[in-house]
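Hi R.,

Here's the chain you asked about this morning:
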Amino acid sequence: MAEEKLENISLEQEEQVNQQIANRMAKMEALRKKGINPFGHAYKTTHLAKDIINNFEELENAQAKIAGRIMAVRGHGKASFLVLQDFSGTIQIYVRLDEVGEAQFGLLDNLDIGDFLGIEGMVFRTKRGEISVRAKKIEFLSKSLHPLPEKWHGLKDVETRYRQRYVDLIVNPDVKKTFITRSNIVRGIREYLNGQGFLEVETPTLHTIPGGAAARPFVTHHNALDIDLYMRIALELHLKRLIVGGLDKVYEIGRVFRNEGISVRHNPEFTLLELYQAYSDLEGMMEITENMISQVALKVLGTTKVNYQDTEIDFKPPWRRMTMIEAVKEYSGVDFKTIKDDAEALKAATQHKIDFEGAQTRGQILNLFFEAFVEEKLIEPTFITDYPIEISPLAKRRDDDPAMTYRFEAFVYARELANAFSELNDPIDQKDRFMEQVKQRAAGDDEAHRMDEDFINALSYGMPPTGGLGIGIDRLVMLLTNSASIRDVLLFPTMRPER
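And the predicted structure, written out as tokens:
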């Protein structure tokens, strides 16, 4: 253990750390010689640190049992002050030799910062006014063999913080707060959807055909069946099968996996919310999106306004709405309503220096203009609607313009946050779309959809008009916690293994 690699510290610092580890192991053995298990047993607590501090008037002079990690020690001869940290926060512990006895007071000789203790004692306020627990009994619960990061340089490095999240959570209260907020956000989403009559379901993680998104899947192999399987890239197609089966309002919050690059916005595995509602449509999905997110923000943060990277964003409905053609015209000056065919679109792309390699149609070029000129301008919550059919193989065609679909993406701070359709429920049209996607795969597009005959079969039994919505949970958490990188909101982001 003393030989474990320590990142970003000098040789001298590494030697100091190794010596501290050796000293801690010696104290561990000293405890054992005294008949004390340095890795103790269950300890039943009555209070958390925050409970005692927030309810001091009621608890003053009462007995309390608390447990946690020791974060500081100050010794004064026959009395010591400890700072104990539990899940809720920190509280001071006052230990006197004449009150706990020599045997228990002697435990402090083998105590290090980071060790876990159980403390039973009386709640009181010191002469300096600090709420504390006056120890009557001490129980050793666990020995920390490694010094915490303030003793060395390791966790100032961002990469090390992500790799050693367990230490990051100990020493950085803001990190713990972020993940508590994340849990509250997910809980708030569930409460909203359950309150709207949605049923939470679970669908397979292993798919025989990856579908529901344009993405490269991870491939694995099932030995007993001797077949390749794919980690799911979306939740969509199985949830739609449930709509066919008569479960009219369903949702799932689950991990999906895409074999793509890593950036401040992307991690190979991430958490996705997808929901589907029978007899609804794009408008219904817009209403759910803006109402759910604004209500979750209000519940978790107490406001619909957040300050993200020094920019104020207000999630209060209604959100701005623009068609893709309107947005492109506003920010690029190019009006695709006047561009009638593929040749004109390619000409416009050339004139505006748009790299259109692999894109040959008007709809594809429109999307490239949107990405080049519009996305970075969408700071306040904005719905972009009417996406080209070429890039929306699962969305219903617009009645008034068959080249476009009933689809929106919601953008906040120049990032896609949500994607929704009036779902395509025509099995013949869906099969034709899949066939076109198969052609694109054959032409070299690894992210194009594959043919899913069972899904076509499901649609053939009849799926009612349906609205569907997907929201990236990690990106939502980033916005509501002012986190610059997706890694800041993932407890264990994907990292390249250390050599």
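The chain has two domains: 11-155, 172-319+380-489.

Let me know if you need anything else.
M.
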